[in-house]
Write a structure and sequence with these properties.
The structure holds two protein chains of two kinds. By secondary structure, chain A is mainly β. In chain A, 0% of the residues lie in helices and 48% in strands. Classes of the chains: A mainly beta, B mainly beta.
Chain lengths: 117, 121
């Protein structure tokens, strides 16, 4: 079945360091791909998304590119801040059998990012 | 600013008691999801509703959990009787159903509430 695998954390970085959180997926066809972020004590919120191959999602300095050939959607940021400390979830929204869309999401296990000043 | 609301935000109860958690989805959203988050299991999908009808509740322990949508503005998750292993944060999420637009629909997001932190003693 469809699944998402993301790197285990915690990832600990110093402020202004470069961030990569790896995410790969297994799915049929072209699912939509998402990164959600969860700040301490809060619910998940959408960070960025991509709906087709080679699309780049971006928001708040974060970027991820939908790579069909490597089935990946790695999250990157050029310079992290202390305020980026959170848990990051990669997710996919699978296609239905007849090609229709759904908003049911399959999540990875989450990666804790800790940014130190 | 439309948001998903959940009540209560925190609940402490004793084993064997009934617990009811409530969720108000964003107006106009016709899909609702219930998740449970724990350190050990991560984020688990418990139930999924579309147009108030349950589509998938395979992740929910049927003997003690029940989920309903009495109307379009209210979703409930009930545990009876509660057990210490039910201690977790329970999230509700809502979204607009993308319909038959195909996999490139831009309407397949979910919007999460702040969660209910449940502690069963």
């Amino acid at each position: 079945g469809d699944s998402v695998t993301q790197m285990e954390g915690p990832v600990t970085l110093s402020e202004e360091a470069f961030l990569t959180i790896n995410c790969t997926y297994t799915a049929t066809g072209y699912p939509s791909l998402f990164w959600y972020v969860q700040y301490p004590g809060e619910g998940l919120q959408l960070l960025l998304k991509a709906t087709k191959a080679d699309d780049k999602g971006s928001n708040k300095g974060f970027e991820a590119t939908y790579r069909k050939e490597t089935t990946s959607f790695h999250l990157e940021k050029g310079s992290v801040q202390v305020s980026d400390s959170a848990v990051y979830f990669c997710a996919l929204s699978p296609l239905l059998n007849y090609g229709g869309a759904t908003n049911k999401l399959i999540f990875g296990t989450g990666t804790l990012l800790a940014v130190q000043p | 600013d439309a948001r998903v609301t959940q009540t209560p935000r925190h609940k402490v109860t004793e084993m064997g008691q009934e617990v009811t958690m409530r969720c108000q989805p964003i107006l106009g959203h016709n899909t609702v999801f219930w998740y449970r988050q724990t350190m050990m299991q991560g984020l688990e999908l418990l139930a999924y509703f579309r147009n108030r009808a349950p589509l998938d509740d395979s992740g929910m322990p049927k003997d003690r959990f029940s989920a309903e949508m009495p109307d379009a503005t209210l979703a409930t998750l009930k545990i009876q009787p509660s057990e210490p292993r039910d201690s977790a944060v329970y999230f509700c999420a809502s979204g607009p159903y993308p319909g038959l637009a195909g996999g490139r629909s831009s309407y397949n997001e979910q919007f999460f509430g702040p969660g209910t932190r449940l502690t069963v003693l």
